[in-house]
Amino acid sequence: MPAIVVLVVVMGMFYLGWRYYSLYLADRVYALNDANITPAHTFNDGVDYVPTNKHVLFGHHFTSVAGAAPIVGPAIAVFWGWLPALIWVVIGTIFAAGVHDFGSIVVSVRNRAQNIGTLTSSVINPRSRSLFLAIIFFLLTLVNAVFAVVIGNLFVANPGAVIPIVVEIPLAIGIGAYIYRTKSSALVPSIIGVVVLYALILVGQAYPIDLTGAAEAIGMGPRTLWILLLFLYAFIASRIPVWVLLQPRDYINSHQLFIALAVIFLGLIIGLDRISAPAINTAVPEGSPSFFPFLFVTVACGAISGFHSLVASGTTSKQLDKETDARHVGYLGALGEGSLAVGAILATTAGITAVGLTWREQYTDFGAAGAGAVGNFVAGIAGFTTHLGIPEDLGRIFAAVVVISFAATTMDTGVRLQRYILQEIGEMVGTRADGSVRSGAGGGFLKLTKNLTAVTFLAVIVPLGLALVPGRGGAEAQGFAFGRLWTLFGTTNQLTAGLALSVIAVYVTKQGRSAIAQIVPLVFLLTMTTWALIVNLKTFIDNRDWLLAPLDLIILVLAAWLIVEAALAMSKARRESTRVDEPIA
C-alpha cells in the first residue's frame, strides 16, 4: 500500500470532520454564542486571564497537549497491523477527542473557567472530586515515570541528542527572560531558538555524550543514571516560575511540532514510500494481548486523552477571546494531535524501510513492539529525512531531539501538576467543613503539602520509584515501562477522559440538548478500559507482579465508581434538563 494514499485519505477525513462534525457540535450541541462574555474578558488580569487571538491560542493549546504520547502509543499499536491503529486514531480523533477537547473548553468557559476537578464536584456530586483527584494522581504518576524512561532510553541510544537538549534549557531561560523583561512578542526569539537548537545537532553529532562510564563507576546502568538526573531536573524545573523555562520552551517546541509534521509528510510525498507492515497482523505470537481491548488503551493520546481536559479547563479556557474560538482551538487541536499519531504510524510502517529495516524484524512480538517503539519512530523519521537530502545519522538525532523535547515538556508539566494535586488532596483531607485544620494525620499532611520543597519532593519521589523498578531483563530492560506501565497509563488516561466526558454530557443534558456525541465515546471508553483492566489484573496476579496488580485493582475500582457516578448524574440531569445555557454553579 503506498503510504501517500493513506495520508491523503486520512487528511480528507480530518477535513470532513472539521468542516461538518465540529460545526454540528458548535451549533447543535454546545450552542456557541459570541454574545456570552468569556472569563478572559470578565476576569482579565493580564496574567492568567488574557483574551488571546485564536491562532495564537491554538499554538499554545496544541503544544501543551501534543507530547510524546501520540508518538509512543501508535508506534506500539502497529504491532496488530497498521489498519486497526489507523482506524482508531482517525475515528477516535474525529468522534471522541474532538468532542472531548472542544467540550472541556466550552463547559469551563461557561463556568468562570473552572478546572475539570471543580466542575466534577458541582456537575456530578462532591464525591466525584475524590474520584477525580485519585485518577489524576495515578495518571500523573504513570506519565512522569513512563516519560522519564522514554527519555533515558533515547539518551542512551542517541548520545548525539544530549548536547542540543541540554543547551535548550539555558537557551529557553534566556528567551524567557528577554520576553519577560522587554514585554516583546515571542515569535522571533522562539524561531531563533529553534534555529540554534537545530544547529546544535551538528555539535551533538561531533561530540556525543555517553554516560556509560560514569554510570558504571557508581554501580548503575546509564539509563538509570539518566532517570535520576531527569527527576533532579524536574524537581528544579517544577519549582521555578513558568515564564522562566516552561513557557519559552513551549514556544520553541510549538515550532518543532509543525517542523516534525512537515518532515514526515514531505519526506513521505517525495520518497513515495510503501507501507511494509500488514494491514492486520495475522501472525501474532501466542500469548500476545489482543487488539480488543488493548489497542484502545495503548493508543490513548492521538485518539482521545484525558490529559487534554486538564489543559483545556486549566489554562486554555482562561484565554479564550470569544466562544466560537473554542471550535478552532479545541477541535482543530485534537486534529493536530491525531495528525502526529498518523505520522507515527507511517514512520514505523513505511519510513523504516528507507533505512534498511523491515517491519517483521522490528515487531516480532509485543515485547519487542514496546521496547522498540520510540527507536522505530526515530528510524522512520530518519528514513523520511533521507528523501529530503538530510543524512540518516542527522535525521536520527533530529527525531530524538523532537521526541525528547516533547517528553521533557510533559514531565515538567506533569511534576508541576502532581504538586498541585497533592496540595489539593492536602486541603481536602486536612481541612474540616468549617475551614479549620484537622488534628492528627490529616492536619499533618496538610502542613506537609504547604511546604513547597516537601510537596515537590513527594511529587518527584513517587514516579521516580516506579520508573526505577526493574522489569524482566533487569533494571536496564526497556520493556518494563512500555509493555506494562504503558497500558496502565493508557487506562488511567482513558478514565480521565471518561470523567471529562461525563461532566460534558451532564452539562449538555441539563441544557436540554442531546448528549449522544459524548455518551457514545464515554460508553466505549469505559467498556474497553474496564475490559483491559480485568485482563491485566489476571495477568499480573498469574505473574505474581505485586507492584502492578494492586495498582491495576485500584484503577479498576475507580473505573467502576466512575460508571456508577456518571449513570446517577445522567439520570438526574435528564430529570432537571432545561433549554437555558446557564452556568452549572
* CATH architecture tag: Up-down Bundle
**CATH superfamily grouping:** Amino acid/polyamine transporter I
Tally of DSSP helical segments = 24
State the secondary-structure class: mainly alpha
Count the beta strands: 0
Largest sheet properties = none
Q: How large is the share of residues in beta strands?
A: under 5%
Task: Encode the helix/strand succession as letters.
Answer: HHHHHHHHHHHHHHHHHHHHHHHH
Shape estimate:
globular
Overall radius of gyration: 23 Å
CATH fold assignment: Amino acid/polyamine transporter I
Fraction of helical residues: over 70%
Task: Identify low-pLDDT runs.
Answer: 478-482
CATH class membership:
Mainly Alpha
Q: Give average pLDDT, whole number.
A: 89
> CA-to-CA gap between the ends?
53 Å
Number of domains: 1
